[in-house]
Amino acid sequence: MLSWFSAIDAQLIARLQSHKLHHALLLSGPSGLGKHAYLPELAQAILCQSKHSRCGTCQSCQLFAAGSHPDFYMIQSDKQIGVDDVRQGLEKLQGHAQLQQNKCLIIHAADTMTESAANALLKTLEEPTNNTFIILSASSARLLPTILSRCEKLTLPLASVSEIQSWLTTEHNLSANEALVNAYATPFKVLAALEDSSGLTFAEFSDDIQAIQTGNLLPLHFGQKWQSKAIECIGWLQHYYLQQTKLKMGTADYTYFAQKLKLSTLTASKMHHAGINKALLLSELLSQ
């Protein structure tokens, strides 16, 4: 169990054991938080035959661990979730549970469902079969209002810097300073950055910002270098300007960094426009 989910997990399990858990849950949180790891753990508890405790020894838990539980189905896709994916998952929920307990369907990244896929899910959300639980995860609000209205919406807690650092050390034998953790924000993004030895890194970004400040790097060259990671880079710049704004509170430089923070937010909104010159946008932001 990821430590930052412990509190909300305890609440959900208590509601499950008292038969007060909603049949359709939408668990939201940013990408890289660990939703993909947590949802199956919640499903195991829902299906466990020993007071929903994830006992690990009952028939349900053993089948779950083996990946062959007859009353569990999971939908996931690297791109979009289509209507056929949803229909196949819903077929698994028809009829009585084979283990005479609950049935559970997980839909990872439900915000990537096509409109037809979401519509296929609606009837089951409205009229679920007995002892059926549907758990959806999402990293954005791109879901049909009809889906949102039929689910209990829960926002997963973010991991603190210390929780991320402890998890990296304990589970992966890796370390990250506070600046790196803040730059990537979520645990699995920090982990991916530490394990990725190729490409541009936050450490190199920090060095380049210092080089601009000392006149050893032109903003134009910075923009050209970082345009392939412009969206991630603009997020780092926003965080940098926010930190500087806090540090410069009450000084002559406060207004400058506050303006930079506002400009970086405006620049971020332009980064997703098709055909935009990302190198130029980065260069202009750093030149102003």
Annotation keywords:
DNA-directed DNA polymerase, 5-stranded parallel β-sheet, alpha/beta, nucleotidyltransferase, transferase, Rossmann fold, 5 strands, 14 helices, single chain, EC 2.7.7.7, P-loop_NTPase, 288 residues, 2 domains
Secondary structure blueprint with pairings:
Layout: H1 6-17, E1 24-28, H2 35-47, H3 59-66, E2 72-75, H4 83-91, E3 103-107, H5 115-126, E4 132-138, H6 145-149, E5 152-155, H7 161-172, H8 178-184, H9 187-195, H10 202-213, H11 219-226, H12 230-247, H13 254-270, H14 278-287
Parallel strand pairs: 1-4, 1-5, 2-3, 3-4
Helix pairs in contact: 4-5, 8-9, 11-14, 12-13
For the biggest sheet, the summary is: 5 strands, parallel
Number of helices: 14
Q: What's the overall geometry?
A: elongated
Estimated radius of gyration: 23 Å
CATH level 1 class label of the largest domain: Alpha Beta
CATH H-level superfamily title of the largest domain:
P-loop containing nucleotide triphosphate hydrolases
In CATH terms, what is the fold-level topology of the largest domain?
Rossmann fold
Mean pLDDT across all amino acids: 91
EC number: 2.7.7.7
Organism: Opacimonas viscosa
Protein name: DNA-directed DNA polymerase
GO molecular function, one term: DNA-directed DNA polymerase activity
Describe this structure in words.
The chain folds into two domains: 3-155, Rossmann fold, CATH 3.40.50.300; 161-287, no CATH class. The model has no long low-confidence stretch (mean pLDDT 91). The protein has a five-stranded parallel beta sheet, with helices on both faces. The protein has helices at 6-17, 35-47, 59-66, 83-91, 115-126, 145-149, 161-172, 178-184, 187-195, 202-213, 219-226, 230-247, 254-270, 278-287; strands at 24-28, 72-75, 103-107, 132-138, 152-155. It is built from 14 helices and five strands. The chain starts with 5 loop residues before the first helix and ends with a helix. It is of the alpha/beta class and 288 residues long. Helix 4 (83-91) links the parallel strand 2 (72-75) and strand 3 (103-107).
